[in-house]
Structure formats: structure tokens, C-alpha cells
Amino acid sequence: MRLMRLDETCEMAGIKKTTAYKMMNEGIFPKPVNVGERAVRWVSTEIEAWIKDRMEERDALAGE
Q1: How many CA atoms lie within 13 A of 15 on its CB side?
Q2: Which residues contact 12 (CB under 8 A, 6 or more apart)?
Q3: What domains are there in the chain, each with its CATH number?
Q4: Rounded Cα gap, residues 46 and 64, in angstroms
Q5: Angle ∠(52,58,64) on CA atoms, nearest 5
Q6: Which residue windows are transmembrane per the record (predicted)?
Q7: Closest CA to 51 of 29, 36, 26
Q8: I need a labelling partner for 29 at 20 to 30 A (CA). Which of 16, 18, 37, 50 fits?
Q9: What residues have CB less than 8 Å from 37, skipping those under 6 apart?
Q10: What is the b/e burial string over 32-54, where b = at least 16 CB atoms within 10 angstroms of the residue's CB?
Q11: Could you write out the DSSP letters of every residue in 1-64?
């Protein structure tokens, strides 16, 4: 497990920064962890779990 900056998080998830913030506001993307007064990071395992959930949703839809 490690903490990632937003650009690295978006690259891993395959999304743009604006999309990440939109999905966070909608409660469908992991929220960041505060690591300083003006610094936040995302937990890599939470992003990996989010990606895995998207894959499971895709597979469930394909099985219908």
C-alpha cells in the first residue's frame, strides 16, 4: 500500500482529474487522505479495489 498524488491516481484509474473530482463528489470514487495542510493523497489499494469493482460490474453485465 502506498499514497499517490492525483496525477498518478488518475493515470492508474484511466480517468481525468475533473472526472475524479466529479465522481468523488458523487460518492463513487475513493476520497483522498489529508497528509498536510495543503496536501492530499489517494491510497493505492483503494484505487485498485475501485478498479476491481468496475471490472466485476462489467463482468456481471456481460453475463446477463
Answers
A1: 17
A2: 4, 44, 47, 48, 51
A3: 3-62 (1.10.1660)
A4: 27
A5: 140
A6: none
A7: 29
A8: 37
A9: none
A10: beeeeeeeebbbeebbeebeeee
A11: --EE-HHHHHHHHT--HHHHHHHHHTT-SPPPEEEETTEEEEEHHHHHHHHHHHHHHHHHHHT-
pLDDT given at position 62:
82
Contacts 24+ apart (CB under 8 A), 31-35: 32/6, 33/3, 35/3
Residue 14 is placed in which grid cell? Answer: 484511466
Residues 2-44 have pLDDT tens digits of: 999 999 999 999 999 999 999 999 999 999 999 999 999 999 9
